[in-house]
Amino acid sequence: MEPTDGAYAIVLAGGSGTRLWPMSRTLFPKQLLKLNGDVTLLQQSVKRVLDILPAERIFVVTNEEHVFEVRSQLAELDKSLDSQVLSEPVGRNTLPAVLLALKKIVRDPAAASVAVFPSDHQIRDQKAWKNDMLQALQLAGDKWFVTFGIKPHKPETGYGYISLGREISSGAREAAAFVEKPDQKVAEKYLEDGNYYWNSGMFVFPVQELLQEIERLLPDIYNVWKGNDESGFLQSYTQLPDISVDYGVMEKVSRVAVLPAGFDWDDLGNWEALYRLGEKDDSGCVTRGDVLALDCRDSFLFSTGGKLAAVGLERAVVVQTRDATLVCSRDEVQKVKDVVQRLKEEDSHLVEAHVTVHRPWGSYTVLEEGPYYKIKRLSVSPGSTLSLQMHHHRSEHWVVVNGTAEVLVGEEVKLLSENQSVDIPKATKHRLGNPGKLPVEIIEIQNGPYLEEDDIVRFDDVYGRS
């Protein structure tokens, strides 16, 4: 029997990545970004799993805001993954997300083990990862709950730790204890001790034993899961507690194996990590995008929003997008999450979205806005259609700048090509579509006292949002 027989994988893709602001935002978090190459972290994660499991045994759990972008990115790897994406109505940490996927997995009577992975980690040594995964699946076959431990190379205060006990087999050790994130002095002690490893957040479980432990440890959650079909479980989702797999299960069961990772690993949790792993020039700087650096040393300079010119910086992080810029010391990158918290308190839109927002039909970019007006550029993908909708508080004027658009206004359908336009009066049903094979580009001018996205009343939507 092969270790992968009856094995499934769950990739968790619902995080927000606040410490990588302003690139990572609520509506487009770090796992959906190309931070370390030409493909996104999510695509890297799923591609790794596809090396050992077929697409039909991989489930990706995300939230409603990201589901269409996740499907789009996964379709670039394997079109059959589209049906493997599961959507949470609200974020409830990792344990409810795992239970959501288990609703699908337990339909297979041969399901024996399940691996759980975050979608935002960097692992470059695929061969070593595969070898460790096969060993972890073998341990799960012997009814061990397996986690991967990462040997510390510095006194890190941002990770939980695991102390190692007796050897089980082939380097795997029994977990002696899980330890919460330490302060600096304790982290230094753990590093010196050598018997404490970082908790990677990657797990492999025997399926039936996992469910038995959830029933024993968390009977209320288990009863909601067991007593409902998938639809009923989703309806009860908002009532579930915010609880992680680590805290809810792993820290409380007896047969936990720690497999010291033979592969390189980084969670890319902050800008210092991107600097550390990036390719450095002769001055020790990592630059990406349109950057001009003069007399700078040991700095991370990243721009997606025009020319970034930096002079005389040392050990600095500068990240520039079209609508926000972060400047901080490399020694203070953990405090970026405090910036995000302050912006939330100010009710700033900079936490939620970039100026370009991805939608299942394409994207829109806010070009300019002010009191009573907003100007957007809409890009509608070939064959795509927006919802049939209306707005209570705004009128719109559309100008086609590229392609041929099909426009419904009230009861009238029009085909508009370049340089043609149409007015959408307030409180009028309308719809925009692209019947052609090339993207349609529209300039949209909104006028009215309220111009936010929640002033959309949908009557019909091919993406199920009505």
Features of this protein?
3 domains, 26 strands, Spore Coat Polysaccharide Biosynthesis Protein SpsA, Chain A, 466 residues, 11 helices, 23% helix, globular, five-stranded mixed beta barrel, alpha/beta, Jelly Rolls, six-stranded antiparallel beta sheet
Architecture overview:
- This protein has 466 residues and is of the alpha/beta class.
- It has three domains: 7-260, Spore Coat Polysaccharide Biosynthesis Protein SpsA, Chain A; 274-342, no CATH class; 356-460, Jelly Rolls, CATH 2.60.120.
- Helix content is 23%, strand content 32%.
- The chain contains eleven helices and 26 strands.
- The protein has helices at 41-50, 67-75, 94-105, 126-141, 184-193, 207-217, 219-226, 230-235, 245-250, 271-277, 336-345; strands at 7-12, 58-63, 85-88, 113-118, 145-150, 161-169, 172-179, 196-206, 256-260, 286-288, 291-294, 300-303, 308-311, 316-320, 325-329, 356-359, 362-370, 373-380, 388-390, 395-402, 405-409, 412-416, 421-424, 430-433, 440-447, 457-460.
- Strands 16-17-18-25-20-23 form a six-stranded antiparallel β-sheet, with no helix packed on it. Strands 5-8-6-7-9 form a five-stranded mixed β-barrel.
- Helix 2 links the parallel strand 2 and strand 3.
- It is globular and about 75 Å long.
- 37% of the residues are buried.
